[in-house]
Amino acid sequence: MAPFLPNFQSFSLSLPFSFKMKRSFNSVTRPNSAQLLFLLITSFLIWPCIEAAAAAAEELLKGFEATPNPSIPFFQPLLNDSSTKFSFGFLRVNSTQLALAVLHVPSREPLWLANPSTLSRWSDRTKVFFNGSLVVSDPRTRMFWSTETQGDKLVLLNNSNLQIQKSLDNSNNVNVPTVLWQSFDFPTNTLVETQNFTSTMTLLSSNGLYSMRLGNDFIGLYAKFDSGSDQIYWKHKALQAKAQIIEGNGPIHVQVDPDGWLGMYQNGTTPVDIESFNSFQRSLDGLLMVRLEPDGNLKAYYWSGSSWVLDYVAIRETCDLPSPCGSYGLCTPGSGCSCLDNSTEFSSGECSSSGPYSNDMCSDPKTQKNDIKVLRRGGVEVPFKEWMRYETTSSLKECENACGNNCSCYGAVYNNASGFCYILDYPIQTLLGTGDDSKVGYFKIKEEANKKKINSGLGVGVGLLGGAVLCLIGAVGFGSYKIWKKKKRVNRMLEEETGGAMSGPYKDLASASFRSIEMCSSGHR
């Protein structure tokens, strides 16, 4: 990751040339035109950065208002912490969108976003203001987000926590700030050191597919596979070696410790579980963070001063991720990705045979139309089967019937050795490849949309072919008409010269003359 912005408080401009001093201190040589031009261009380029930095304060009071600067390509700071390691401001997303964000300045890495699911436009009509509440408003898209508070000021702490504070006088008439709202209570995809993650919070991957939540005594990672319910795919249960979880004593919470571990607590300071990182009990100067990645993995990183260093990985094997090969994919350890359907080829991270998602995986009873294709494959196994729903059946056929008669079932995997029938009640994702043919998969594929695409493609093809034929016929007819018209005109001219109808040698002469005219005409086109 490249450095983000210089420290503007100590910003200085150093030029690649210097004015040469004469022997007399009262006179200097004047810069030449090239030097003046370079100075002018350099000043023009850095001025927006200096202006943006000057606008960033260490607290925002009531009445503050700002709009995005169209000349800033990446990040427009509004508020800095006292160490200048973190900054709050406008983050430009996909060139045209805007997100309120807290950034780690040295790495340009966003640590927190306000309302990441709905972004506003990077436009001068988009406004952010503080009136006791932090508000972002985009009237054109009707996007509106607010903290709904009545605070006095907005501050950014040295741990990247954005807070709305209200000053209250105590008995000694000393202002004591009370925190009304803080970004640490609303994490997006990242946790930083000393940040508490409670049972009421959710960590969400940037693509919205995966989430982290806490149970009574565990950390869970969940996948949302468009089925209306989340499927757990990774679970870390508290070992309770140093402290016990006591039922009724409140929920657990998690905190990233600066000494290189993820601690799970219930009450007090003694952890009920420790998930250690590579940097466990090592002294680190840089920031430590935990992030839920777009592939569903939970990873920890620390800032080395020049780059982010991987410090922890929850899921170490690629095939253990929730969907490493996409829909209807097959992940075989040591071999990589392929497709469940042998007739399709794995390309661009997915299998082309995957049909559309549908909540009804049964044939249409009104039309009796069977638009469900069944795919069977041996040597497959369900991923994260420890947390998959299953039934015990006596045969593969009974397992298939249990899914076939269930319109909310997308597939099933039968283990002939144990009799376990794993029911897949979510759209088919990646299965695990094994060398055991006694583990057989039964999968449904909705074909209706694919047929529509084929039929529509065929219709378009027929239409284009018909149009081409009509154009060809028209061109031939028009050409024949022009030839006939020219021939008629020549005949008429010769008739007038001979005084009557042509026959015998005159007719041959007319034909020869016409051919000569045609050749001349074609030669001059």
UniProtKB/TrEMBL annotation:
* SUPFAM superfamilies membership: alpha-D-mannose-specific plant lectins
Query: Where is the Apple domain positioned along the sequence?
Result: 362-447
Q: Which residues cross the membrane?
A: 458-484
Q: Is Glycoprotein among the key words of this record?
A: yes
Q: Output the superkingdom of the source species.
A: Eukaryota
The record's keywords, sorted A to Z, are: Disulfide bond, Glycoprotein, Membrane, Signal, Transmembrane, Transmembrane helix
Which GO annotations describe the biological process of this protein? recognition of pollen
Q: Which InterPro entries match?
A: Bulb-type_lectin_dom (IPR001480), Bulb-type_lectin_dom_sf (IPR036426), Pan_app (IPR003609), S_locus_glycoprot_dom (IPR000858)
This protein is called: Apple domain-containing protein
Q: Which organism is it from?
A: Gossypium darwinii (Darwin's cotton)
